Structures are given as structure tokens and as C-alpha cells.
Amino acid sequence: MIRNERQPTYRLLEEIGRGSFGSVRKVIREVDNKVMVRKEVRYGHMNSRERQQLISECAILSQLKHDNIVEFFHWDHDAKSNTLFLYMEYCSKGDLSQMIKHFKHQRKYVPEEHVWRIMVQILMALFKCHYGRDLPKLQTIYDEAEEPTKSKGYVVIHRDLKPGNVFLTSYDDEFNQNASDADYSKVVIKLGDFGLAKSLQASIEFATTYVGTPYYMSPEVLRDQPYSPLSDIWSLGCILYEICSLRVPFQAKTYTELQDKVKAGRFEPVPQFYSKSLQDIISKCIQVDFTKRPTSWTILDDIQCRISRKALDLEKFERHLLNYEHELTQVGEMLEQHATEMKKDFAAAVDQRVREIVNGNPKPSTAPLITGSGNAPMAGRTPFRNANINRNYR
Predict the structure, then answer these.
(1) Homologous superfamily (CATH) for 96-301
(2) Which fold has domain 10-89?
(3) What reaction does this catalyse (predicted)?
(4) Which candidate, 35, 134, 40, 41, places its Cα nearest to that of 89?
(5) N or C: more exposed end of the chain, with fewer CB within 10 A?
(6) Which residue intervals of the chain bear CATH 3.30.200.20?
């Protein structure tokens, strides 16, 4: 990762999170007033393993570019305070844990179409992590395609998938970055917090670095056995279960009891409010034998997931149309202002010529070109970033 030496300046806002590593706060990039998040990590007291983990997180964040992964912009550090600053995308609608609390407080089930929408977006982010590439686009929901081969040397396992690490934002944030009210039927999912993410390897190190109650931890991780991206699929199943049931699949009074339940894979069925196809996917994900769990590709190939993927594609296309309309409006306003300024210049030129004639000066003086006094030159300008709306919209 290359550090940009010419860093922009920021205006600090409120702190929105704090942990043993440091804090997270909102900032505004002054050059364009963009709201962002700055993760402040104190590394002065870290041991060599923790520092290596921090370096690994920075490397992963800088390489994982995807619509459903929190975008990483750049990093900086303060040598005096031994603090690393990571500048990332701000997600204004909170996270999945807040959404679950909302529906729990309302005593309502999360609508099934919300669940499919959320699941597909998480899976597309996981596909990027597990296969090292973007998911192939669907032309129709009946497309036939074989599972892609995994990218050599670039398989990332998140290892800490939980509702609090699945962030929510909205397409509306492009025009209103301070919006906070969440419409859960239209949220855009952003997978984040890759602090524990690593390339494929044995799980014993994970057991020494994981912090917190393992509600979403797979049985192979609890057993200190070698694990694969399918451990993330178990965690995804636990998240989907919690969205549907508004409680975690494995509940216990003690840590040991919880471990036993996870290893045994015993949990209550998903409420009958949800379709059998959704219940089946969740059950397949929370499968103790990891060889029987589906991959992110296998789930995304499900017909209902295909339908949800096409619906999301249409939403993205609609967003580009709205952006295009927004830019057309801006250009129209610019043209109108330019025309108004030209009329003023023309009127001033006529007035000047009349005064010259009245004062007995039949010869016109050298008159300025009437081009308007606006700041935006029109000649040769291409104002449309989204002029080709039939491009590969993502």
C-alpha cells in the first residue's frame, strides 16, 4: 500500500465508537465536504503479532474494492502519539445489530424481502473475499454458469462476521450525506471491520486473537481445527437466523454450555413466518460438518437469490438514471445562468453604444466580447460523468 504524501485536511466531528484499539470518529474532508470515518488505532503498546495484524488489515482494506465492502480511502499516522489513522467510508444508517434491535422493539418480524436483499449483498461481498474477484453479472435469472476457480494467493476470510460488522448505508447518501433515518427496505449493505481477517490458514491463531462471546463462531474454530471460507458461511447463517428470529441461534448461561451447543449444532427452527427456501438456506449454512455447507457461489446461484440480484441491478441502474438527471439539472441551471449573464452584457454594450452616439461619437469604441461573466466555460466541456448510462453499472 502506497501512502499519499499530500493528504487532505479534515474537520473532526463526534466520536462514534471506542474500543481497546482506540476510537472511531466522523470527519469531514474539507476539499469537498464529504463525510467520512476515521479509525484511530494506537500502536505504541502493541506487540509484534498485534502490529502485524494491523499491517495485514491495512493491506486487506487497500485491496478489497467492492460495492458491498466499506471503502478504504487512505491512511496516515501521527509519530508523536504512535497513532495510525485509517480513513474509510461513512455508513449513515448504522449496522445490522441496530436494525435487529429496531424490529425487536417493534415486536415485528423483518419482512422476508428485506432478508433476501441483505443476504445477497453480504454474499456478494463474501464472494469477493473468498474468490478474489467480483461476482459475474447475470443477463437473465436463468443464466447457466460454472463456479469460478478461486484466485491463487488471494483468499480472504473475514473471521469476525456479526451484525455489528455489517454496516448500512443508502444511495440517497450521495446527495444527502447527513441523512440518518433508515429505510430498511432500501439499505445498501457494506461489510466492514476486517481487523481479524486473514488469508486462508489454520485457526489456532484465531482462537488467541478473537475477542468476545462466540455467538457466530463456527464449530471448527472452537475446536481449533483448520478452517476455510466456509467458516464465514456458518457466521452468515447465524446472522440470517438472528435477523429472522430476532435472537441468536445458540443461547446459553455459561461459555462452556454455549460451546457445547455450537459444536452440537442444536438450535430452534426459524419461525414459520418465513418461506421454506429461506429456512433451508439458513439450515445449510449452520451445518456442523463444514463439508456440507454451501459456498457463497452456491447460495448466490439459488433462483431466489438470482431474482434478488437482478432486482439490485435494476436499483443500481435507476440510481445512475437519477444521477444523470441530477447532472442534467445542474447543467441546465448553469446554462440558464450563463444566458442571463450574456443578456446583461448585451444590454450593457447597447447602453454604452447609445451613450457614445448621444455624445457625438459615431465611431464605436472597441467593445468587449459578450461571453458572459460566469465561472464555468462552456466550450469543449463535458459535464456528464454518467453520459453513457448503458455502461456496466455497479
Answers:
(1) Transferase(Phosphotransferase) domain 1 (1.10.510.10)
(2) Phosphorylase Kinase; domain 1 (3.30.200)
(3) L-threonyl-[protein] + ATP = O-phospho-L-threonyl-[protein] + ADP + H(+); L-seryl-[protein] + ATP = O-phospho-L-seryl-[protein] + ADP + H(+)
(4) 35
(5) C
(6) 10-89
Tell me if residue 167 falls in helix, strand or coil: strand
What residues are designated binding site? 39
d(CA 342, CA 336): 10
143 half-sphere exposure, CB direction, 13 A CA radius: 16
- Is 160 catalytic? The answer is yes
Cell of residue 209, nine digits: 486473537
Sign of CA dihedral 73, 78, 79, 82: negative
- Mean pLDDT across the stretch 282-287? 96
pLDDT of residue 394: 44
Threshold 0.90, pTM exceeds:
no
Residues 82/44, Cβ–Cβ less than 8 Å: yes
Binding residues for ATP: 39
* Residue 114 confidence class, pLDDT cut points 50, 70, 90: very high
pLDDT confidence of residue 27? 93
pLDDT score for 200: 42
What is the tens place of the pLDDT at every residue in 192-209? 887 655 444 333 333 333
Angle at 338 between CA 336 and CA 340, to 5 degrees: 70
Q: Is 157 in contact with 232 (CB distance < 8 Å)? A: yes
Are 177 and 92 in contact by the 8 Å Cβ rule? The answer is: yes
Strand order in the sheet with 10-19: 10-19, 22-29, 34-42, 83-89, 72-78
Is the Cβ–Cβ distance between 167 and 192 less than 8 Å? Answer: yes
